[in-house]
Amino acid sequence: MTPDWCQSKFRLMLLEKITMHDFANAVSAGCKTVILPFGSVEEHGPHLPLGTDTIHAYALAERAAGIVRAFVTPPIWYGLCRSTGQHPGTLSIRSMTLACLVQDILRSLYGQGLRNFILLSGHAGGTHMATILNGCDELLDELPDARFAVLSIIDLVKELPEGMVETPGDSHAGEVETSLIQHLFPELVRGGADAEFPSFPKFIIARNKLRFWPGGVWGDPAKASPEKGRRILESEAEILAEIIRRLEKFRED
Does residue 182 belong to any structural domain of this protein? Predict the structure, then answer.
């Protein structure tokens, strides 16, 4: 079966699958935009794979790059996972490691002639996102003609048409992510999971995070469906494509 993205408007420029001549020719032809998908290896309840965030971000980047012409880097699989670090299977890196990774990759891409950078994260943890954002902010003076956009999947979900997501506050292994994996890789879904909306102590850093979030779900997986996953992914891709267009036109002077 032909994948949906093969029907895209543009030939996909996935960096790990193109040659150096493909890359050089595209840059010479004016493509200066690249999407960097970030994810995590992190628990996603008892029913979804540990790579859910990365799978989502990379699939979305592919589809958006079929709507607006852009390179897509290989996904960055590791992220900073504070709240889920004690759940089985979660692998977390330090903020310092993530910041260095962000900046090293951006400097290298800039050196190759790219100027518009979309850092898209499937993992939406607050500290994780702040680290990516700060990593870009620190490069504003060093890379004077670079443009950056930093966003997470949660940011895009908030922009979806009203009613597409039924669960208020759905954010982790719930309706949205379960629907997406049911659509993209149904063979990776292991049954279902109970709805869960954890409540961590306000202002207090808890040592035993499992006490406050035992099931690893934030939302309601029961409301998921493969068809909903398809519609969510298509809508997210259109929203991301519009963000890319705005970034490419952005001027501050």
Answer: no
How many domains does the structure of the chain reveal? 1
**Contact partners, residue 196, CB within 8 Å, separation at least 6:** 45, 213, 214, 215, 216, 217, 218, 219
For the stretch 101-111, pLDDT in tens is: 999 999 999 99
Taking each helix axis as running N to C, give the angle between helix 226-249 and helix 52-65, from 0 to 180 degrees, rounded to the nearest 10.
Answer: 60
Instruction: List the domain range (segments joined by +) for residue 66.
Output: 9-166+235-249
Task: Read off the pLDDT band of 8 (50, 70, 90).
Answer: low
Which CATH number does the domain housing residue 245 bear? 3.40.50.10310
Alpha-carbon span 45 to 246, nearest angstrom: 36
CA distance 16 to 73: 7
Domain presence at residue 152:
yes
Structure token pair of residue 220: 């309601």
Does the model's pTM come out above 0.90? yes
- Tokens standing for 228? 């909903």
Domain membership of residue 228 (yes or no) is no
pLDDT band at 252 (very low <50, low <70, confident <90, very high): confident
Contacts with 163 (C-beta within 8 Å, 6 or more apart), sequence order:
none
